[in-house]
Amino acid sequence: MTQDIKDKVVVITGASSGLGEAAARHLSRHGAKPVLGARRLERLQALAKELSLGDDAAVQTDVTQYAQVKNLVDRAVQSHGRIDVIINNAGLMAHSLLERARVEEWDRMIDVNIKGVLYGIAAALPYMKARKSGHIINVSSVAGHKVAPGGAVYSATKHAVRVISEGLRQEVKPYNIRTTVISPGAVATELTSGTTDPDMAERVRKAYEIAIPAESFADMVVFAMSQPEDVDVNEILFRPTRQEY
Question: CATH number, domain at 132?
Answer without folding.
Answer: 3.40.50.720
